[in-house]
Amino acid sequence: MIENPLTESDTAKLRQRNRELFILSRIAEALNREVNLDRALQAALSQVAELFGLHTGWIFLLHEDTGDGYLAAAQELPPALLEHNCLLMEGNCSCLDSYHEGGLDNRNRVNVITCSRLKDLMAGTDGLRYHASIPLYAQQKRLGLLNVASAESHWWVLSSDELPLLHTVGDLVSIAIERGRLFARSTQLGMIEERNRLAREIHDTLAQGLTGISLKLESIDAMLEMGEDPRKIRQTVAQTLALTRANLEEARRSVLDLRAALLEGRSLVEALTELIASQQKKDELSISFTITGGSRPLPGRVEVGMYRIVQEGITNIIRHAQAKQVEINVAITPKQIRLTIEDDGRGFDPTQTPPGHYGLAGLNERVKLLGGNMKLETSPGQGVRLEVAVPLG
Predict the structure, then answer these.
(1) Reduced DSSP (H G I as helix, E B as strand, rest coil) percent helix, strand, coil of the chain, to 5
(2) Higher-confidence residue: 125 or 87?
(3) pLDDT digits over 280-326, tens only?
(4) CATH code at 261-391
């Protein structure tokens, strides 16, 4: 019995299916290597660009609480968007609007549309004008958009089979998003459990220690009234001091482990807005505050650290700068959070720390704990400009 040989058409289809399986396995492997959402999305974008021969891509996610879109990951953005990364990638655009209206839901047709962020730019676009938009869903819940872009001619080179394949890639990315968020929530639950444990520990150690100190002080008071031997009184005082120091160390350790209560239930943007409004009202200081990328969720330790940095920066200005105007800018991208605080105060010589300016050392320590770096620009009579950059992911 002679088997029919594969036709040229059959061979082409087999090659296409093998290529599809290869692409999907490579992307699935990249996603499975990362449980951290930011790194998983970046890995997926890198694979999509390489395997489909595309120039660049980016992922918008919808904030779980507010529904606002934010830039979650980007791959080789053109200079025109890189130069103004936060400004041009903020807010709604034609693809996000269409997504919210259900206009990108046809799985049998990938939407290749003119990018509203690039169409009016003349330079620095690398010839990009169009991108494919793939909606990301978890069942019926909207998660965001996967956008991939290339030169105009490239879209006609991609086969009709490869374009719908992007929808399957989108499904893999959607699964990774849900998995990453579930992991983050489980981590948050662990933080809450740890905080409750610390609360119990404080009650069991500090509260008892303070009770012991109180009893010791009452004993000293009684001994003084009764005219006891001074050596015996000094011995009791020494015991009380030792107990006080031990409880102080315990308090410091516990406080370092606790998340700042000021941020409970609020985002960094909300907390900073309230802080600045409060300081302006109390100290009659004019503070302008701008933030870009504020919809992007941040790790708890970064939120707390950045809040404290801004808080301490304002406190230093009020105490030492004699400033009238302060500008605070925060820019959040997938890779980092950048903070600048600038005042019009009297400034100082940065080579010599003025008396009482220990707050700068504390700021620098906080930035280092977050893995970031701090830059200070000032001179006598020229005000102070503080720049802080902290990596994310």
Answers:
(1) 50, 20, 30
(2) 125
(3) 877 778 999 999 888 888 887 888 889 889 988 988 888 888 889 99
(4) 3.30.565.10
State the Cα–Cα distance between residues 49 and 134, nearest whole angstrom: 14
220: CB partners within 8 A, 6+ apart? 233, 236, 237, 240
360 and 316 in contact (C-beta within 8 Å)? yes
**Residue written as token pair 């999509």:** 48
Radius of gyration for the alpha carbons in the chain, expressed in angstroms and rounded: 29
Give dist(CA 282, CA 280) in Å, integer: 6
Pairing of strands 325-332, 286-292: parallel
Q: Is 381 left (phi over 0), alpha (psi -120 to 50) or beta?
A: left
Which tokens sit at 253? 């350790």
Neighbouring C-alpha atoms within 13 Å toward the C-beta of 205: 17
Q: What is the pTM of this model?
A: 0.62
Domain boundaries, given as residue ranges, for the chain: 10-184, 186-257, 261-391
Cα separation, 387 vs 336, whole angstroms:
13
pLDDT digits (tens, 9 = 90+) for 29-79: 888 888 788 888 888 888 888 888 777 888 888 888 888 888 888 888 777
Strands (E) located in 245-322: 286-292
User: What are 348-354's contacts with CB under 8 Å, separation 24+?
Assistant: 348/320, 348/378, 348/379, 348/380, 348/384, 349/379, 349/380, 350/376, 350/377, 350/378, 350/379, 354/320
Q: Which residues pair with 325 in a beta bridge?
A: 286
Q: How far is CA 138 from CA 168, 200, 328, 368, in A?
A: 13, 39, 37, 38
Torsion of CA 26, 27, 31, 33, to 10 degrees: 10
Residue 292 contacts residue 339 (beta carbons within 8 Å): no
Q: What is each CA distance from 192 to 189, 196, 302, in whole angstroms?
A: 5, 6, 17
**Contact criterion met (CB below 8 Å) for 325 and 342:** no
Mean pLDDT of 144-150: 83
To which residue do tokens 């594969």 refer? 6
**377 vs 180, higher pLDDT:** 377
Instruction: Give the pLDDT of residue 391.
Output: 92
Task: Please write the tens of the pLDDT for every residue from 184-232.
Answer: 777 777 666 666 666 665 665 666 677 778 888 888 888 888 888 888 8
CATH class given for the domain over 10-184: alpha beta
